[in-house]
Amino acid sequence: MEKYAVDRIEGKFAVLENIKTREIKLVELLLLPVVKEKDIIIYKDGYYQVDDKERRKRLKIIEDKLKKIKA
């Protein structure tokens, strides 16, 4: 199982960043569920699926870090 962050959408492709290896990969949007920038997706058994729980967790971590910087 691989986890990717959707870095950005470029035309008919999503630019994905592997969360562990930081490797960048282009995937046609037709092969993905409906995604948007900052989504976390999992590639497992030949399919991609959105992981909302992981996305919320990562956004919370970022928000907490920003609060510490502003304090």
Summarize the structure.
The protein has 71 residues and is an alpha+beta fold.
Could you explain the architecture of this structure?
- With 71 residues, the protein is α+β, with helices and mostly antiparallel strands.
- It has one domain (2-70): SH3 type barrels (Roll).
- 27% of the residues lie in helices and 41% in strands.
- The chain has one helix at residues 52-70; strands at residues 2-10, 13-18, 24-28, 40-44, 47-50.
- The protein has a five-stranded antiparallel sheet with strand order 3-2-1-4-5.
- Strand 1 (2-10) and strand 2 form a beta hairpin.
CATH-derived topology: SH3 type barrels
**Strand tally:** 5
Distance between the termini: 38 Å
Helical proportion, percent range: 25-40%
Quaternary organisation: single chain
Q: Which blocks of ≥5 consecutive residues have pLDDT under 50?
A: none
Radius of gyration from CA coordinates:
13 Å
Indicate the structural class.
alpha+beta
